[in-house]
Amino acid sequence: MIIIMKPGVTRGNVDHIVEMIESKGLTAHLSQGSQVTIIGVVGDKTKLAHSNIEIAPGVDRIVPVTESYKLTNKKFHPEDSTITVGNVSIGPGTLTIMAGPCAVESADQVMETAMAVKKAGASMLRGGAYKPRTSPYSFQGLEETGLQYMKDAGEAADLRTICEVTSIHALEIAVKYVDMIQIGARNMQNFELLKEVGKTGIPVMLKRGLSATVDEWLNAAEYIVAEGNANVVLCERGIRTFEKATRNTLDLSAVPVLKAKTHLPVIVDPSHATGVRAYVAPLSKAAIAAGADGLMIEVHPCPECALSDGPQSLTFEDFEQLCDNLDPYAKLAGRMFR
Amino acid sequence: MIIIMKPGVTRGNVDHIVEMIESKGLTAHLSQGSQVTIIGVVGDKTKLAHSNIEIAPGVDRIVPVTESYKLTNKKFHPEDSTITVGNVSIGPGTLTIMAGPCAVESADQVMETAMAVKKAGASMLRGGAYKPRTSPYSFQGLEETGLQYMKDAGEAADLRTICEVTSIHALEIAVKYVDMIQIGARNMQNFELLKEVGKTGIPVMLKRGLSATVDEWLNAAEYIVAEGNANVVLCERGIRTFEKATRNTLDLSAVPVLKAKTHLPVIVDPSHATGVRAYVAPLSKAAIAAGADGLMIEVHPCPECALSDGPQSLTFEDFEQLCDNLDPYAKLAGRMFR
Amino acid sequence: MIIIMKPGVTRGNVDHIVEMIESKGLTAHLSQGSQVTIIGVVGDKTKLAHSNIEIAPGVDRIVPVTESYKLTNKKFHPEDSTITVGNVSIGPGTLTIMAGPCAVESADQVMETAMAVKKAGASMLRGGAYKPRTSPYSFQGLEETGLQYMKDAGEAADLRTICEVTSIHALEIAVKYVDMIQIGARNMQNFELLKEVGKTGIPVMLKRGLSATVDEWLNAAEYIVAEGNANVVLCERGIRTFEKATRNTLDLSAVPVLKAKTHLPVIVDPSHATGVRAYVAPLSKAAIAAGADGLMIEVHPCPECALSDGPQSLTFEDFEQLCDNLDPYAKLAGRMFR
Amino acid sequence: MIIIMKPGVTRGNVDHIVEMIESKGLTAHLSQGSQVTIIGVVGDKTKLAHSNIEIAPGVDRIVPVTESYKLTNKKFHPEDSTITVGNVSIGPGTLTIMAGPCAVESADQVMETAMAVKKAGASMLRGGAYKPRTSPYSFQGLEETGLQYMKDAGEAADLRTICEVTSIHALEIAVKYVDMIQIGARNMQNFELLKEVGKTGIPVMLKRGLSATVDEWLNAAEYIVAEGNANVVLCERGIRTFEKATRNTLDLSAVPVLKAKTHLPVIVDPSHATGVRAYVAPLSKAAIAAGADGLMIEVHPCPECALSDGPQSLTFEDFEQLCDNLDPYAKLAGRMFR
User: Fold this and answer.
1) What stretches of chain A adopt beta strand conformation (E)?
2) I want to staple C274 with a disulfide (CB 3.0 to 4.6 A). Which of A57, B178, C77, C246 is the partner?
3) ipTM value
């Protein structure tokens, strides 16, 4: 931690800070410039957590030196992690495709989709049974019945399953049915939910919040890992910006940024990011080229009839063609696929 | 709802849409331009909710005509609402000041603060017992013990109390201790929590999400009201933008925008919005001038020692002076205060 | 300047940096932490400007300690500046209202508006003769003819005049007609134009760029002042965010932020910020309450007929009523007005 | 154009609008819903340009149906354009790499870089002679001398050259030296400069403004094409968002969006977008996979010594390796390269 003092600070102000630091058993290093005095703090800075040095007299600002996330930080765990979900490995050397409808609507819809996406190359089935919708008057999901459909379809098609949960109650039910839990963008900082999912130990995919920085995202992942659950995968799904040509702005630079900052695998969801079916294919290729460990893609037997997010869903034919086109990109990236 | 067709659309494409509309018992109005065909839909558009017309062949885009929020919409409830919390009225003609520490730290801290803010002019006591913190290693709150301290201090100082809840579990406990519930920015779209707070009937203050549009915010409020709880107050607390000179960017234009779109009262929180103590006073005055029904201000007996958000907290002296300075602004706005 | 080294850096990496620093005649202060080494640089850091230390081996990042703007920086000029435009003073103790049409359309339109806004309380006449329009097919302004109309109207109504220029060519013409030059948001970082306006010495109002941070804005002002023209006024006019309920998001917190960082006066333009006539009055009051030195307001004899930005323009009656309502706010802020 | 009326509008209000429309020789189509009345306007809407219908009594809002850019619009020019710069073709079937230093610093630096990037696979040489810098105290460029160095190096290495201009004056000089003109992000809406570059007929690369929407960007391109210069290439270089892990946020979804909306070629600049050397390679691959027609990459003989943007520059070795790695991505995209 570095403390930058205001110009014209008094000797007394500086001494006061130095005393605060040393009283906690830490060491203060003074750099006296022509205009500005800087104090470097050496030692375990958590001891200063509640000192609010930044409002002590004469202090201009504080610059943190180390990140607050530790368990998810690549600096302390340089090797990339592989997360296993049943027989599926997410991480270096593999390309994991999670595909399925935005919302589970019926047993047939899920079963039919599971068979189609398995055949095309997906290794996991996605589907929403608890839907966080902007308006209370939109379709909210089939809940436990939907989870049963997912389980049946996953078993029939030999696909691992992933479902979003939006509350602790839903989590308690979902762990009985699905292989992996998704925390959606709106709940990325629902810390109570993160702690609970951390206690279950089940593999979890944590989507980036609409306006979450990479640092906040990794701190949210830290909540899960700190409870003892290291099976965390991150999912970039677009951030909120001024641009409205796409629903959100897919931040593909987050992929190499995450690869530099954390050892956790990274999945990209181009369907939710863009909200437009025609943009899913080019951005899927781009995501693999940027280094993603997998993709989450919306597929629906009849996008025109979907109860949720139809406009961004691929048909079975679209999805099969997409997988064929992704094949050489996976090979270039040195990733096993299909 | 208006459907804008692509240039060069075929007669068959248009007929297909018209049939879809009429098959639901609605009426289609055609406007045939030189370049573009437009179809207006007349009737109850919820019947078309799952038709996904935007991906039917030949469709360029859909333009919604009416807002999806109804109960919170000023168009259907033109009179401004007043929400009562015990003997406190929030709404037209009053200026409600909610003040207190970011986090409840001890019985003494809360009691002392309650007495000081009451004396200066606050009518409600704020304090966090469940703290949503970016890092899992930061202070997370005293929970039920903190709620008891709030209750004791509120009763002693004759102040109504407000506390944030971050889970359904916390909500169930908090309703036993406090007069008003706060839903924080990170939980604005925690729809399960919104529904539960809607069922309780307790007055609730809904903070704006960091990247929530006014429309999404009013839809979130609609979740609460749709469960039968009309006692909702909105709180503008800054949005996330590229600017980092303040912690968030306080969007004071949201105050007149909300006054035009909804009948619910609006509170402004300049402490969290800016994160800087020196900016609280000018923006408090500005909020009243812009039409706010009240303010939420952080006050701490010793900001230098605060366990959370010390740098943005006012001392008792600061707060007393602020209230004195706000007095003429309240009068100008025609609002009762102190 | 502070240099933060990566964890596990070698002794050689650190020595290399220290040599670079000392070879320029500067001093390096080392703080050796348990995890991280920090190097403080003491002396004139411009000597290191092109050293690109941040990509030297072992460097994690660089933290600048002092701002790059000097002449506009309050740290070095603690007293607030007053800028004079003829008999008008912009700065502490006064409230300057600049009013007039978005675009100059005819001699009559400008003359009529000048008389009306003078009567209501404005001291300066605004009007656009060079209009930067998003589409090349929109009305682009009357250019020199428009400037002549402004000059005539300003003289007749005893108002000082301000006009935007969008090129060096326009600047050369405008200085012959108007009392103050406006640099618009789109040209805030048109550095060639800033340098030229700096050479003229004419009073200039620099609007904030749509996505400019306060630091970038003050650096842009520094371009003008560095050329010898200290007569600079800043104008907050809304920034671009995700929110679309207003055209831009008026950042009123920028007012106290600027008051803390610079000695230059600050004007607020609620007309362009919101794009909606009904929001101009509440945000004008709020701007004064937040500490603004003046307002820029669009007024048009017939907003329904305006060639540009009619929807945000006030009628003469609206404007007169607004000025009446602003009176007590000016008094509260200790500012002379009318 | 569609006009949406407020609920409870009077018959008179509607008649007034219909008369306005018909008085201009246009046709009005009425859709009378249960809650809302909608008026569709058929005919040449430019006749209504200055009518400001949105503030007529009873009007809620206006929805434009067609884009304001015409010459750059794919709807009217469905075939993708190829722009030729000497013997270089930018467009379908080719991958154009523009490489070179951020700033031209010396004859040797440019010559050496030109030889290296040519050998590795670039077909164009980039280099800045006029540098728009945030601070007036940063290096501003060698100007005409720098252009001469570019010309010499381009001829010696058989590379076409591209240079940014920041004013009409610089443009007049630059056209004598370089093969293609760059308009930088800060000048994307410097409309006077756009018009002038439109008159020259020289090939021009228009970078996206920091906070420009795709629509504003295409309108800016329209300014150039409307003056008779159809040789326009667009360059995505990152937009400004809340995320600070990269200098800007590279919006790769803009590539497929542009491919859907315009016939102009699209280049991606990952160097300026990220500001970090290590992220250039993964995002270059991703850009090609997303459909880009080329890349602009910063290369410097000694990034540690660069006068501008060293941290994001590749060394010659880095660049050669990058080109080797891009080869299979170009082939997959069906693009000729090297």
Assistant:
1) 2-5, 27-32, 37-42, 59-63, 83-85, 88-90, 96-100, 124-126, 160-165, 180-183, 204-207, 232-236, 266-268, 294-298
2) C246
3) 0.93
Number of Cβ within a 10 Å radius of residue C285: 27
- Closest CA of chain C from D191, distance in Å: 7
Residue C36: pLDDT band with limits 50, 70, 90: confident
Report, as ranges of residue numbers, the positions in chain B whose pLDDT lies below 50: none
Q: How many inter-chain contacts (B to D, CB under 8 Å) are there?
A: 56
Q: What are phi and psi of C253, to 5 degrees?
A: -65, -20
Token pair 């005095």 in the structure block, residue: A37
Q: Residue C163 to residues A73, C107, C144, C174, C202: CA-CA distances in angstroms?
A: 54, 15, 11, 8, 12
Q: Find which of D252, D271, D283, D324 to mutate to test the A interface (most A CBs within 10 Å of its CB).
A: D252
How far is the C-alpha of C33 from the C-alpha of A102, rounded, in Å? 49
Report d(CA C15, CA C159) in Å as an integer: 64
Window D:61-100, CB contacts with B under 8 Å: 63, 65-66, 75
Distance CA A65, CA A68 (A): 9
* pLDDT tens sequence across C195-244: 999 999 999 999 999 999 999 999 999 999 999 999 999 999 999 999 99
Contact C3, C59 (CB under 8 A): yes
For CATH 3.20.20.70, list the domain ranges present in chain D. 83-332
Q: A52 or D263: which carries more pLDDT confidence?
A: D263
- Residues of CATH 3.30.70.1140 domain(s) within chain A? 2-63
| pLDDT band at residue A139 under the 50/70/90 scheme | confident
pLDDT tens per residue across span B46-86:
777 666 787 788 888 888 877 889 999 998 899 999 999 99
Q: How many CB atoms lie within 10 A of CB A155?
A: 11
Q: Which of A56-60, A69-73, C68-72, D331-335 has the lowest mean pLDDT?
A: A56-60
Across the beta sheet with B27-32, the strand order is B27-32, B37-42, B2-5, B59-63
Q: Report domain C83-332's class.
A: alpha beta
- Average pLDDT in the D203-225 region? 97
Tokens of D84: 């030729």
**CATH 3.40.50.1110 matches C2-63:** no
Question: Among C211, C241, C252, whose Cβ lies nearest the Cβ of B286?
Answer: C252
pLDDT over 80 at D195, yes or no: yes
Q: Do A35 and C241 touch (CB under 8 A)?
A: no
Checking DSSP bridges between strand B37-42 and strand B27-32, what pairing results, if any? Answer: antiparallel
Torsion angle (degrees, nearest 10) of CA B8, B12, B16, B17: 20
> Which of B54-58, D16-20, D213-217 shows the lowest per-residue confidence on average (mean pLDDT)?
B54-58
Q: Which amino acid belongs to residue C121?
A: G
**Tokens 């110009």 belong to which residue?**
A7
- How far, CA to CA in Å, does C274 sit from each of A173, B97, B253, C8, C135? 47, 27, 8, 51, 20
Q: Give the integer Cα–Cα distance in Å for D279 and D281.
A: 6
Which residue is closest to C213 within chain D, CA to CA? D240
Among A116, A146, A119, residue whose Cα is nearest residue A131: A146
- Identity of the amino acid at A175: V
Rounded CA-CA distance C199/A29 in Å is: 45
Q: List, in sequence order, every residue forming a beta bridge with D41; answer none if it has no partner.
A: D28
